[in-house]
């Protein structure tokens, strides 16, 4: 039996007549009769007896109808599932992001997106930017966020925001009286540095070296959020990305712009060799809307 035969057989069984089935399906009565006759030839047994212009289902038809109903329930489930996919009421995303974003501003963005689409779920994987790119190419992620430049073969790149570095000071620090800070201001200051591989640290050290300043690093930390905590403990001044610094302002830290401007792009990566799902496209659009107009000077 093919699907059309099942559909017509079901319509005849539920309406108890060829006329009713034809009306329900929007086809002619002869078309229904012809399809039933072909179905009986294909099956090799009669499904209806014709008695006084009435159709009487055979026991075989009654048994067959139960199985056809099960099949149509399955089709209805598939139809609902497909409709849910279209309406983003079903689906799962796997997002890769740096540790600093995952521990700071990103959970709020993810929560906002999932509140808009309660049928979706999301896995957040934290890793360094290079691992995010590699995992995308390998098919382990649907999309990824990176803060620093990474090899982009087989990946589509889209800059979400240019994130500048800001100086983080403890309350009451003498330099807090200045509206912005530069390399000369850090000459005799203890510094809380980020990891040696961090691009912000490398660029800060290059600026200090250009001014003949040897950095006085008292402690270094792997994450910008940890650096902010160490600043509040009196360990020195830190230079971190503005997004993390703003996330940590409730600790009591003070933020000051740094000149010359040191900035890195926050970039959205998606694979070029796999089509994006509706959920991926919607989350990407949500991220872009979140950061639209967010490039602004750091607050004093």
Question: How would you briefly describe this protein structure?
Answer:
This is HTH lysR-type domain-containing protein. The protein has about 300 residues and is α/β, with parallel strands linked by helices.
Report on the architecture of this protein.
The chain is an alpha/beta fold. The protein folds into three domains: 3-69, Arc Repressor Mutant, subunit A (Orthogonal Bundle); 89-161 and 265-295, D-Maltodextrin-Binding Protein, domain 2; 162-263, Periplasmic binding protein-like II (D-Maltodextrin-Binding Protein, domain 2). Helices cover 43% and strands 23% of the residues. It contains eleven helices and eleven strands. The strands form two sheets. Strands 3, 4, 5, 6, 7, 8, 9, 10 and 11 form a nine-stranded mixed β-sheet that branches. The chain has a two-stranded antiparallel ribbon with strand order 1-2. Helix 1 crosses helix 2 and helix 2 crosses helix 3. Mean pLDDT is 87; it is low at 295-300.
